[in-house]
């Protein structure tokens, strides 16, 4: 081989080597970065999954004695609440009465949620009493001598009495007389009283005029009380109505405890 030809071959190989090296480096470095990123991403995912698994395990732990980080406080409270509810429900059901009657003094009784409706007809006139036992329980035991003595809880909800003839209605808003400590020896003359009265056509609305009973003439007020008594809403019936409302409110209270227990016990 001539010297010129050998020199030419050497120069060509020399020119090709940097190109090959650069191409290899250009291929290798991105590949290495990609592998490193893949390892880093995998580690990050694994760490995140491990943390999630740890948190789920910690939060699901029901150990009542653990106070390391406060994660078990709710579980402890739930366990104690469920234990109390079990005892409370059992105690409330002990000696429980038979329930709300279907009728009383010719009034038909219907219940829906916390609302109770009593209705009857006198000829062509309809008499309807409506009450709601929500927030109606009153501590009523003025004769108790010791503050540690058991208290009597009675439901004395506000109620309306509607007398309807055709499309016209005379409606009374009434309330129970709440007996106070200083009234223990002297019983009130009435078990309930009239708050206000109105007369309307069709349906009652906000534009219907209503008058407060305390501004009525006293004799007129007595006549209205006599009218209610004649329609069946006497003091004795009002007292019986309070007993029925107390029983119904107690039923709803027990159901609330059971619903509360079911809610807290749900995981």
Structure description:
- By secondary structure, the protein is an alpha+beta fold.
- It folds into 3 domains: 1-60; 62-93; 103-265, Mitochondrial glycoprotein (Mitochondrial Matrix Protein, Chain A, Roll).
- It has 4 helices and 10 strands.
- The protein has helices spanning 3-60, 73-93, 218-230, 235-265; strands at residues 103-104, 107-112, 115-122, 125-132, 137-139, 153-155, 159-165, 168-176, 192-201, 211-212.
- The chain is elongated.
- The relative contact order is 0.10.
- The model is unreliable at 2-48, 50-61 and 64-73 (pLDDT under 50).
Radius of gyration: 41 Å
Q: Label the CATH architecture of the largest domain.
A: Roll
Work out the helicity level.
40-55%
- DSSP E strands, number: 10
Give me the number of helical elements. 4
> How far is the N terminus from the C terminus?
90 Å
Class inferred from helices and paired strands: alpha+beta
CATH class of the largest domain: Alpha Beta
Query: Per the principal axes of the C-alpha atoms, what is the gross shape?
Result: elongated
Which sequence of strands runs across the widest sheet?
1-2-3-4-7-8-9-10
Assembly status: single chain
Major β-sheet, in short? 8 strands, antiparallel
What is the CATH topology assignment of the largest domain? Mitochondrial Matrix Protein, Chain A
Low-pLDDT ranges: 2-48, 50-61, 64-73
Order of helices and strands: HHEEEEEEEEEEHH
Q: What's the CATH superfamily of the largest domain, by name?
A: Mitochondrial glycoprotein
**Count of separate structural domains:** 3
Q: Mean pLDDT score, rounded? A: 77
